[in-house]
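Fill-in record for Peptidase A1 domain-containing protein.
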Amino acid sequence: MQNLAFVIVTLVAALAISTCNAAATVRTQLTHADAGRGRPGITVGSTRLPVPESAFALTNGTGGTIIDSGTSITSLPPQVYQVVRDEFAAQIKLPVVPGNATGPYTCFSAPSQAKPDVPKLVLHFEGATMDLPRENYVFEVPDDAGNSIICLAINKGDETTIIGNFQQQNMHALPYFDRSTSSTLLLTSCDSTLCQGLLVASCGNTKFWPNQTCVYTYYYNDKSVTTGLLEVDKFTFGAGASVPGVAFGCGLFNNGVFKSNETGIAGFGRGPLSLPSQLKVGNFSHCFTAVNGLKQSTVLLDLLADLYKNGRGAVQSTPLIQNSANPTLYYLSLKGITVGSTRLPVPESAFALTNGTGGTIIDSGTSITSLPPQVYQVVRDEFAAQIKLPVVPGNATGPYTCFSAPSQAKPDVPKLVLHFEGATMDLPRENYVFEVPDDAGNSMICLAINELGDERATIGNFQQQNMHVLYDLQNNMLSFVAAQCDKL
């Protein structure tokens, strides 16, 4: 087997995974375009698509095309995406895989060990042409039958075209770990109990995967995806503590927001392959420092945190709820929300877990809190009524509701309080609003809450800054208190 390397990563709700370097060369050529090809547009194969330039145009401050190193996958306006997808499908001449099996991507089924030709993909800009190499617009994953699934790494977005950073995949600033240096590393078989605990797994029998090895695929909510081998090794933590036989994934094909300054993502969910589950700890806690800082955050495993000693307020506790339909998630009983001094007229049923759906979870792997659409609208309207600042048009602020404020002003914002069963989370200002400058040098104050069209509410890590949060797994209780996390 070729000499592979990895950076440790962990699936938030499932298992520990790592990002493996498959020694692939990744490049994008930007060459000067000849006359007639310098117009904005897209070519698939040899076909210049019949998409008008106006589909990519910036009109009255909306639409247009941006290039963004912070966005993983290129997204196109819906009408443009459909034309690209249809032409790509017509030229590749392979069966389309049903959408539910491939997440947000358009994928095609190919025979085992085959590497069929794919049509070229070219982006035309004013005066320049971006002729993408194969690895910068398709990725491949195995299916359950051992065949290959070829996926188009482009998504359908809004009216703004975004050129993402897929061409930067597998380029990590941190040094990789050479797997051959580990004397305790083991592959897992596809019929093992560990492999059976994965949500999406298959049996390796192609040129990419050793025979009968466990191959996983995992899709994140932000549309990142990783595919690789489930492996077992001895993990050594701080102070020399070592634990043998910890399962993790070694990702060979990774796309999305796997940042070059990260050594990994630790999974702390309730699933059997999460880190707390494998270490068999009775509790864990975390204390996240400010998101706009560079200071490290503290995580404690099986060390019962003294929240009273380090807290800066009253310790609050609320039950953790089990949901058999989603057993890896941590559900809470959210009862209501207060904006300013107004308890919002939202019934408790809007947050209730009903027949396995809806409910409220707390998730350290999700950045921004999201609310069901009907709840978000009430919160947004009340917040806007109380802040008494002009609302910035939505196209200028992405998914967030933002308000325009004078330069260097720091206007008061209404309080935001989350009411749980037996506990109240009174958020400080920096845990629910953020500020960014606009083009005129004024300030935009944005509410760090959004709606995702889901009936489930999610409490994200932005709302957990400088808050010491303890998960008591034995007693199914969540406790939290405001803290100065960089001093913990």
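KEY FINDING: The helical segments are 78-92, 193-196, 275-279, 307-310, 373-387.
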